[in-house]
Amino acid sequence: MAFMDCHFYSEALGVSVSMYVVVPQITQSQIGMDSKIHGKKHPTLYLLHGLSDDHTIWLRRTSIERYASGRGIAVVMPAVNRSFYTDMAYGYKYWTFVSEELPALARSFFPLAEERELNYVAGLSMGGYGAMKLALTHPDRFAAAASLSGALDLGRFAREQVRNDDFKLIYGDLSRIEGSENDLFHLADQLAANNAETPQLYQCCGTEDFLYEDNVRFREHLRKLSIELTYEEEPGEHEWGYWDRKIQKVLQWLPLPANL
User: Residue 9 pairs with which residues in a beta bridge?
Assistant: First the structure.
């Protein structure tokens, strides 16, 4: 794999931003790497960070580069600060950045595939919310989405935070989250009502995680709507040992086309 530490200007945000990108590379003599390339343009996983982290965290806390190499998948890891992947009421347009500008710029910089069936999104905690939001809002763009310990019941999560100044800056009136374009339950309702092609969805959470009940509620909501979901739970907390194990499962689960 080739690793790029990429710094570029965002028109959506009006500032320079950062992302890490790893891209498949075939090597003959590199020790300890199972390298694979599917074609001239690479299947791509957009991998999202959590509330207290940045674009560097997945590479620092896991072996994502090594895991992705065996699957021949490029991984794009953007920084979005504490934005909850949202166009903020009092701040920056991070949803516009991550949903529109980022994929276009990444494809202009690197040989990344544009086809729906070759694009995937995943994330942990806040990033799990962002992954599901992207997939449910734009099911035509992503073949699969995965949430690891995601903050999926955003209305409850924002209301019950002891320090919720971040959420007031992001959303303004917190009572307006539920039923809005930022509410995953509402987005799932819309997807089901429109009979749109649903991305394959994966969700996992540790049973000792403080977000476990939120994940159970979201799972049950998707089941009520007959939206297919791969769901896994096991003993585990909100920590990197769990996420390192689960991102390996996600990479194996991703629906790479058989003809690649």
Answer: 16
